[in-house]
Amino acid sequence: MRIDIITIFPEYLSPLALSLVGKACEAGSLDVRVHDLREHAHDRHRTVDDSPFGGGPGMVMKPDVWGEAIDAVLSQPPAAGARATLVVPTPVGHRFNHAAAEGLAAQEWLVFLPARYEGLDARIAAHYRTRAEVTAVHEYCIGDYVLAGGEAAVLVMVEALARFIPGVLGNDESVLDDSFAPGADGLLAAPAYTRPAQWRDLSVPEVLLSGDHARIAAWRREQGLQATRDYRPDLLRGEGS
Ligand code: SAM
User: Model-level pTM?
Assistant: First the structure.
């Protein structure tokens, strides 16, 4: 999979060279390219923002600068005829969840557009939805809070989707029964324990030492259900992930 990210802070994406995603890049299952938006700003100050039409606080990111940067990325497809899926992190978007991560992981080419200030000029999403080289433009919100910029949201989304790319996780089965996964009926995961079996005054639940796989599976399901009731009752009502 090819991932392009356009940003005014290319260094912000350097964690993608680490851990799971970094290893996937080294192994060739992911090709991550980070582009500096300011290379497409041609005035003396390399301006990427301007004041909002209609007034109000803050600045809006300029469509002409973003348009040139996105067109430059789209002109270099990973393969002849490949079409890109554009991803815009924004509070004004669909919730980014397990299903969204899995959906993005199935694409061959993702282009992320993390903004700063008050966000992108709204015509960017509208324009690229009409372009033949683009399959879709997804606007995703990673949580009900406002970040200073979209780069942290891109890190979150890339790490979440990378787990669904075959071969990226050491144990591919773990995506099947992690929290939110359909294999776990969309519930939260059960608590986990490791050696030593006795730590300070706390011991591991006896069932996990029993070797009885059916009992362990039933216990984990009950614990996952209880955690979901406690922390995320919205998932039980089908309103969450
Ligand atoms: N004016 C925007 C609003 O009220 O919805 C907030 C803009 S925010 C300060 C700047 C940028 O950070 C956004 O354009 C987006 O790229 C990113 N961002 C902030 N919060 C986010 C969230 N919860 N999910 C995804 N991206 C977010």
Answer: 0.96
- Residue labelled with tokens 């989707």: 161
Instruction: Report the C-alpha gap between 154 and 223 in whole angstroms.
Output: 32
Beta bridge partners of 203: 198
* Position 81, amino acid: G
Residues within a 6 A CB radius of ligand 1: 89-92, 114-116, 118-119, 141-143, 145-150, 153
88 strand-pairing partners? 139
Q: Could you list the active site residues?
A: 91, 118, 163, 178
Handedness of CA 80, 100, 92, 143 (dihedral sign): negative
Q: What is the pLDDT of residue 241?
A: 57
Q: What phi and psi, each to the nearest 5 degrees, are found at residue 65?
A: -70, -50
pLDDT of residue 170: 77
Looking at ligand 1, which atom is closest to the CA of residue 141?
Answer: 24
Q: Ligand 1, residue 148: give the atom nearest the CA.
A: 9
- Counting from 1 in the atom list of ligand 1, the atom nearest the Cα of 145 is 23
Measured between its terminal Cα atoms, the distance across the chain in Å is: 25
What single-letter DSSP state applies at residue 46?
A: -
Q: Each residue of 82-107: pLDDT tens digit?
A: 999 999 999 999 999 999 999 999 99
| Positions of the chain with pLDDT under 50 | none
- 139 CA distance to ligand 1 middle (Å): 11
Enter the tokens of residue 147.
């970040």
